[in-house]
Structure formats: C-alpha cells, structure tokens
Amino acid sequence: MKKLALALSVVATMSSPVMAEGNAEAGKTKAIVCSACHGVDGNSMIDMYPKLAGQHPSYLEKQLKEFRSAMQTGGKEGRMDPIMGGMAVALSDEDIADLAAFYASQKLVVADVADVPEAGEALYKGGDMARGITSCIACHGPDAKGMEAAGFPSLAGQHANYIKIQLNKFRDTNRHNDLNGMMQDVSKKLSDADIEALSKYISSIK
C-alpha cells in the first residue's frame, strides 16, 4: 500500500510521459520482423506472446529499452528475456520510438472469454485487504486501460496466458522492472488460483 501511495503521489506531479516522438509509418516497416510472434498488426495469435496493439507508446518504449539494456549489461539492468533481448539489442532509440508509435496506433482485438471467474473480477476490482492485496483497478483502471503518465500499462483484452506468465515472473522475482517493486509486492501474495482467475478476468475486459 505504501508503494502504491508513493507511486500515485508521483503521478500527481506528472503532466505527460517523457518519450521520443515516433513515426508510425516507419515503425510499420520495422515491425515486419516482429510479426511472427506479435502479429502483423500487434494482435498476437500465440498466447505466450503479448498483444501490442493499442498499448501506450511510452510503455512499449520502456520495455524495449529495458530488454536492450539487459542484453548490454548481462542482466544487471533492465528486463532479461532471451528472445526479446536478442531482438532489441540492435535497435536505436529512433527504431524503438517508431515501433512503439506503430503498435500504439493499431486497434486491439479482444476475443470473447468463456467462463470468466467471479473471483478474478473480485480481486481486480476490490483486492483482498485481509491478505494485503491491493486492487488492480487502483493502477490499471476500471477498464484496464492503465495510466500512461504513471507507466501503468493497458491490460484489457491481453492473452490470459501471457498475463499469467508475467504475474508468475513478478512473483518469482524473475521480472523486476516494475515501478517501486509494486507488481512484485502484489504478486507474491497471490496464489496460483488467484493468478489463474485474475488472468482470465483481465483478458475478458473489452
């Protein structure tokens, strides 16, 4: 809760995210190599890879730069991923800005999700104060579109499996590029059943 309050206090002083101005048309050409995993328009058909369409450009820039940084520092900084690190290490800041602009300009496709768990909705909207779990809605919003100025990504319609993978990585501290360790702090309190339910609910939000 203290980490959330600190992050939100920082947000209150921010007017807009700091990022380069990307060229979406240039990014479209550069994204051809990304299409095998993320789809031609950023709507990945493989559920272990994220949908990028409609994501905040500043968030996409941050992740690409941190994949690159991890490769350049041997994992001491940034976000380590063998596939994305290899893809990002040769990208310039301009490339990254262009790719982010392209994917942000694309329309997210949200699939219908059967059997949406009520437990997932309850956790997302209300958390579980008895276990010290903050609601997801506090940072990602009621429509799961996130807050760009704060660096909180849009989650709506994301693949449930991808969300599940990332929550497990945060919980196991294999991913640690979250603001003030907030996602690690929340996810370490989640059970496997919680993560399953949350992932399915979030993927159903349109």
TrEMBL record:
Heme c 1 binds at C34, C37, H38, M84. InterPro entries: Cyt_c-like_dom, Cyt_c-like_dom_sf, Cytochrome_c4-like, Cytochrome_c_Oxidase_Subunit. The keyword Iron applies. Binds 2 heme c groups covalently per subunit. Pfam families: Cytochrom_C. Residues 1-20 form the signal peptide. It is found in: Periplasm. Residues 22-107, 115-206 form the Cytochrome c domain. Keywords: Electron transport, Heme, Iron, Metal-binding, Periplasm, Signal, Transport. Its main location: periplasm. GO terms for cellular component: periplasmic space. Heme c 2 binds at C136, C139, H140, M183. This is Cytochrome c4. The lineage of its organism: Bacteria, Pseudomonadati, Pseudomonadota, Gammaproteobacteria, Alteromonadales.
